[in-house]
Structure formats: structure tokens, C-alpha cells
């Protein structure tokens, strides 16, 4: 069984561009529905792929990726859009991507506005994210038909032994970004599922208090708002945000 690897996408559809940053166990595919929606509404959309993601080896995320690399990639993605002569750039991030989208709003003056979906900012525990990543890893390994159950279990043990250190790195970066939230003066969209099991939904309320320019949108849905039952409403809300800011 051949697995098609996800690829970054760039939909060139107008002078205003939206940078879309994916999640910890996700890929650019998680942003494709939103990207196509934006394209249909004359916005350019760019979803790069974070280092270590989109491969058949979940360990790549833990061994090849890091908050430092992912932040560098975010900056390069913004530079790419500037080189494409985009006059206005917005940045949105899902889960892990939310950290770097917010960091960009804090530190990159050329960004017009942006926001987050299922953001871990302000959440105290990452247990749900760890369990979700282990589930994701097992699913990826199970698709590889040449692996036995014993081999899969062995690989999962390796992933489990390394994930805590990576989550600690991410958490450290997240805390640093959270501490600077009050610095955001540009329009800030917060999309949060009230049934989110990976991050604490209540944290979004606290973030909204810290960012005076924030617009909070709550959805009766789980974590991955860009593809779950809330995606159509989210797309509509993001479009209104872009049109009004």
C-alpha cells in the first residue's frame, strides 16, 4: 500500500495572503479546506510543512523538528509571501501552529493580524497532546503492512521515551509566547472548540482577556476545528475577520 505524503500548498489568489500553520501531529492537509475556501474568496493561502512532519516515521517529528526550527520556518514562510509581492499578510495557526502564529503577531511588524485554532497557549497540562501523539504514531505504524505487532510496540516505546522532552521544549516556547500576549496590538482571532480534549478550552477565555484586540469564537466541537464539524462556521468567521480587519 503506497502512502501519499502530504505536501505544502500555495494558492495564489489575490494580493492579501494568509499563512496557515499546522499542528504537532498534523500536516498542511489539516489546513487545505480552509486554504481552498480562502482561495475561492480571492485570498492567497500558504501552508508550509514543519520540519519532521508529513513522513511515514513519527519519530521524525521528535528528532528532526524543534520549536527553534519551526519558528525559523514561520519566518521564512512570511518572507516567501513578501517575495510574492503580497501587500497584506495574516497568519493563523492550529494547535502547535498557534504558538508560532502568535509569536509572529508579537514579533513581526509586517503582519496585519491573525489568530489561533485550538491553541495550547495558557494550558497547564499537555497530557492529552501526548496521548494523541502516541495514538497517531500507532496508526501510522499500523498502516505500514511490513511491520509486525511486536515491531510496532517496540517503535511506540521509543516514541514514548522521547516525546516528553519534546513537549517540554514546546511548553517552554509556549510559556514565553503566553507571557508576551499583552504586547499584541493587532486583530487576534481565537477559535476554540468547547469539547476540546487536547487543550483546556477555558484557557482561550484567559488569552482573550490578555489580548485586548482579540475576538473569541467558541464552537461546539473538538480540537481540529479546520476539518471537524465546525469547519464551515470557522471558515465563515475567518473570512468575516479578514474582511473587517
TrEMBL record:
Where in the numbering of this chain does the Serine aminopeptidase S33 domain appear?
17-221
Protein name per its UniProtKB record: Alpha/beta hydrolase
One GO molecular function term of this record is:
hydrolase activity
List the InterPro entries hit by this protein, alphabetically: AB_hydrolase_fold, Esterase_lipase, Hydrolase_4
Q: NAD: is it a keyword of this entry?
A: no
Q: Which UniProt keywords apply?
A: Hydrolase
Q: Which Pfam families does the record match to this protein?
A: Hydrolase_4
Classification via Gene3D superfamilies:
alpha/beta hydrolase
> What is the residue range of the signal peptide feature?
none
Amino acid at each position: 500500500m503506497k502512502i501519499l505524503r502530504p505536501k505544502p500548498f500555495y494558492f495564489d489568489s489575490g494580493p492579501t495572503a494568509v499563512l496557515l500553520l499546522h499542528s504537532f501531529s498534523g500536516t498542511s492537509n489539516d489546513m487545505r479546506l480552509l486554504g481552498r475556501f480562502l482561495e475561492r474568496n480571492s485570498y492567497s493561502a500558504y501552508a508550509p510543512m514543519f520540519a519532521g512532519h508529513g513522513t511515514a516515521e513519527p519519530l521524525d517529528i521528535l528528532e528532526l523538528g524543534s520549536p527553534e526550527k519551526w519558528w525559523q520556518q514561520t519566518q521564512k514562510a512570511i518572507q516567501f509571501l513578501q517575495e510574492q509581492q503580497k501587500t497584506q499578510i495574516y497568519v493563523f495557526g492550529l494547535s502547535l501552529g498557534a504558538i508560532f502564529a502568535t509569536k509572529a503577531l508579537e514579533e513581526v511588524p509586517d503582519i496585519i493580524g491573525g489568530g489561533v485554532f485550538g491553541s495550547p497557549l495558557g494550558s497547564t497540562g499537555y497530557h492529552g497532546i501526548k496521548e494523541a501523539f502516541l495514538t497517531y504514531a500507532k496508526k501510522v505504524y499500523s498502516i505500514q503492512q511490513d511491520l509486525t505487532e511486536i515491531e510496532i510496540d517496540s517503535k511506540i516505546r521509543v516514541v514514548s521515551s522521547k516525546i516528553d522532552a519534546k513537549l517540554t521544549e514546546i511548553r517552554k516556547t509556549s510559556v514565553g509566547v503566553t507571557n508576551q500576549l499583552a504586547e499584541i496590538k493587532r486583530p487576534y482571532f481565537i477559535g476554540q472548540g468547547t469539547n476540546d480534549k487536547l487543550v483546556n478550552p477555558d484557557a482561550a477565555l484567559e488569552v482573550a482577556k490578555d489580548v485586548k484586540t482579540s475576538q473569541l469564537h467558541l464552537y461546539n466541537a473538538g480540537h481540529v476545528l479546520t476539518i471537524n464539524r465546525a469547519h464551515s462556521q470557522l471558515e465563515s468567521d475567518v473570512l468575516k475577520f479578514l474582511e473587517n480587519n
